[in-house]
Amino acid sequence: MEPEGDVATPAALDPPGLGFMCGIEVHQQLATGKLHSRQPGELHDITIDTLPEDWPRFTRRLRAARGEGGAVDVAARFEARRNRSFVYCQAPNAGLIELDEQPPLPHDQDALDISLTVSGMIGAKPVSLLQTMRKTVVDGSNTSGFQRTTLVATDGVLETEGGPVGVDVLCLEEDSARKLDSELSPTGEIVTWNLDRLGVPLIEIATAPDITSPDHAKQTAIALGRALRDTRRVRRGLGSIRQDLNVSIMAGDRVEIKGCQDLAWIPRIIRLEMARQLHFYRLANQLRSKHNLPLLTPDRRESSANVESEVGEILPLNLVNVSAAFGTCNSKMVQNGLEASSIMLALPLPGFSGLIGTKSLDADGAQMPRLGRELAGAAKLAGVAGIFHSDELPAYGIDAEFVDATRELLSGVDAFVLCLAPQWQAELALESVLNRARMAFERIPKEVRNVVVKKGSPEDGTTTPMRPLPGGARMYPETDIPPRVINAAHWNNIVSNLPMSRAQRSERLSKYEISDDQANQLLAREFDDHFIAHASGLPQKAWASMLLENEGDIGLMALVLAAKEEGHVARDGISELLSSLEGEVPSMAEIASRSELLGLKPADAGDLMAIVEKVVAERLDFVKERGMGAIGPLMGVVMGECGGAADGKQVSALLREVIQRHA
After folding, report:
1. pTM: predicted TM-score of the whole model, two decimal places
2. For 533-561, how does the pLDDT look when each residue is reduced to its tens digit (9 = 90+)?
3. CB 51 within 8 A of CB 79
């Protein structure tokens, strides 16, 4: 049956009815040194504008190598055609291995143990032999042109709110370099990378396609993140964990979506991808029908007629230089480009008029899927800023006369695409556009896409193409790292010492006299072990508050709180005292002495009562008028009289006592 659903209302699409399938890949940085170089894993918070001048820089080009089977991977071949060069900035934690000038070392032991621990937590079975593989990556993010990855375990199960989800594989791999900048030059794109992150260990967990709905995908991502954090040995913070979504409907095909940082956006991103795949299945049959070609079946498992040769005849590679027709165009963009020796190149797309599309929004305000956006995405992968197409013209300063002139030069063709760029780049961009236009006669291409992010957040949940979906040809063995056996004793030791789950930690905290909110915050910030280590002998609510409200040495915080309980420091002086003792390991006597020196020692109880009585007596009319409502205003007066060296709770209690006496 033909799939039902309106692409203008993605939230109303029926996942089971569309043959929805989804799996998640999570990449989590580990809190260890680098995986194969023994360099520290700390990152440096820099941008291209704050890049230190003394960091060495190296310029490289990469080429695609053949995989184990002798073929060049499709994604690697595509990247190699983009004519890019790379500048690598050597951070302090990047050495010869990160520069690909020294062979890698065996796996970091801590990183390996953490990956085995996570395997045990999700019931996955370790492989008997760790064989490190090279995964071809020639986008510049790895200086070597490949990423090292090792299969650790398979066949696990993750329990989620929406039901169990299988875990197909758990791998241990290197993270990539961080992109700092990209600029176009007359000879190609130049990309600048920071090597600080290159080689930081990542656990990659890939689930089976057991996710049943967009909301279940979000639940699965939450469960994966929680399992990883339960180890207490993974990195926290922005960018330390990344989720990729594998999404398809029966009339479409598998697409990998990267950049899903915000879990709240996952359901919307998936629904928009379902709508996109449904739209392009229907568009393919519109094109086939228009050109009298056999239609696609609604089920990708059923064979459809191969129309590749016919499409090749309908859309031949025919690039036409139409620069002369734009000599008097008033568009600043066009004028500046032509003056800079760019050319205006045209690609005819016969039969595509009205099918390339113009920008429109769906019911939730996201951009509707349209072929023009896909063609522009294909062109941008060649490094150009964008393209113009006939469905959206006249616009952008290109008036109707130039549209008509272009059609005349193209022998009256109904639809076309224009690209303004240096000749080599315009040709590469329009070849990519042509390939994507030919794909429009088929189901959506298997590819890697990226969520559109602007100002740090997803723009609307839509995606743009990144590269073709990699295949098996990208993998081949890493000959510099010997295989390693995981023996039974090692594995048994791991599974005998698995970390507590969040539920177990929550149960442990329930035995202490703290609020539910404090317990939840201690767990969320991973402070519960610190809390329990020092809770004996300290007021438990006050200790929890101190951990949550202050930063610094945990042991010093416990000592200062104990000093407060012994009367050496006023409650309101704790933060100042902590700051003055930062980096020291003081005794209780030294804490008491420092507190007295800073004037933070609590006032004597007798002296404090005298101060309270004096303050109340001087403002007796105010006290009689306000009653207990005078406590708040008088608190500040008493604290000022004490120079801040008083406990707020004690002052409040004494004020209450004295005011009641005068009532």
Report:
1. 0.85
2. 999 889 999 999 999 998 889 999 999 99
3. no
CA-to-CA distance for 555 and 550, rounded, in angstroms? 12
The region that residue 140 occupies, defined by phi over 0 for left and psi between -120 and 50 for alpha, beta otherwise, is left
pLDDT of residue 72: 64
Could you tell me which of 221, 217, 189 has the C-alpha nearest to residue 205?
A: 221
The answer on pLDDT for 63 being more than 80 is no
- Residue the block writes with tokens 């010093």: 556
Q: What's phi and psi for 84, nearest 5 deg?
A: -110, 150
- Structure-token pair, residue 281: 């299945």
Alpha helical stretches, state H, 496-566: 502-509, 516-524, 528-534, 540-549, 554-565
With pLDDT > 90 as the criterion, what percentage of the chain qualifies?
74
CA distance 584 to 593: 14
The domain segmentation of the chain, as residue ranges, is 10-288, 308-440, 502-597, 605-662
CA distance linking residue 449 with residue 377, whole number of Å: 10
Tally DSSP H helices, then E strands, for the chain: 21, 21
User: Are the C-beta atoms of 377 and 464 separated by less than 8 Å?
Assistant: yes
Q: What is the pLDDT of residue 469?
A: 79
Which residues are CB-contacts of 323 (< 8 A; sequence separation ≥ 6)? 338, 343, 344
CATH number for the domain whose boundaries are 308-440? 3.30.1360.30
